[in-house]
TrEMBL record:
Positions of substrate binding: H134, R135, K150, K157, R158, E159
Any one Gene Ontology BP term: Mo-molybdopterin cofactor biosynthetic process
Protein name (record): Molybdopterin synthase catalytic subunit
E.C. numbers: 2.8.1.12
SUPFAM superfamilies assigned: Molybdopterin synthase subunit MoaE (SSF54690)
Keywords: Cytoplasm, Molybdenum cofactor biosynthesis, Transferase
Enzyme class: transferase
Binding partners and assembly: Heterotetramer; composed of 2 small (MOCS2A) and 2 large (MOCS2B) subunits.
Residue ranges, annotated region (Disordered): 1-24
Location of the protein in the cell: Cytoplasm
Length: 188
């Protein structure tokens, strides 16, 4: 059963006021168990804490993926990204993804942490860390988690370009606009 806290990173309870649902002072927000840690944060990601959580004496492989803001998209200069979420649903979706992929690939432990708010170029917006008995299940499981998060989690990305007036408003991006290799996916 998931709980609202974790020994790896302290959590705060979300405010009941709708206007403060994304107030950074109400974060981090987490769901966790002995083998799964899910969190939404506004602060820079604490990668060493996530690796400590996934470390296990049963694991011969520890896989870490960090999604980082790059300085371009589709040949346009990107100045930053910002992320928004529906926290209570996003946490439940991330936990369900972690639980399902953990069972499917026999993963020992799973961490999914997504950053909200502004994420500058070269900063990380998502961390997926898994441990497994062998590397093949760790690689496959971590990639499947990332693809499912992009397809399902109630987290939205806004891209800010440095070459147009869109710097003031940004452009909302669907996470599914590119495949795992970065190739554009055409809408039908």
């Amino acid at each position: 059963m998931a709980t609202e806290s974790s020994p790896a990173v302290p959590s705060k309870q979300p405010s009941s006021q709708t206007s403060s649902i994304l107030d950074p002072s109400n974060f981090p927000q987490t769901l966790s168990s002995e083998t799964i840690y899910i969190s939404l944060v506004y602060d820079p990601l604490d990668v060493p804490a996530y690796l400590r959580f996934t470390r296990s004496p049963k694991a011969g492989a520890n896989v870490l993926f960090l999604g980082t803001t790059r300085d371009n998209f589709d040949s346009r200069p990107v100045s930053r990204l910002s992320y928004s979420a529906y926290p209570s649903l996003a946490l439940k979706s991330l936990y369900a993804i972690a639980e399902d992929v953990q069972k499917k690939h026999g993963l020992e432990k799973v961490v999914i942490v997504h950053r909200l708010g502004e994420v500058k170029v070269e900063e990380e917006s998502i961390a997926v860390s898994v441990s497994s008995g062998h590397r093949a299940s760790g690689w496959t499981g971590a990639e499947e988690i990332l693809e499912r998060v992009k397809a399902r989690a109630e987290i939205w990305k806004r891209e800010w370009f440095a070459d147009t007036g869109e710097v003031q408003e940004g452009v909302w991006r669907a996470n599914k606009e590119t495949d795992a290799q970065g190739n554009s996916i055409q809408s039908k």
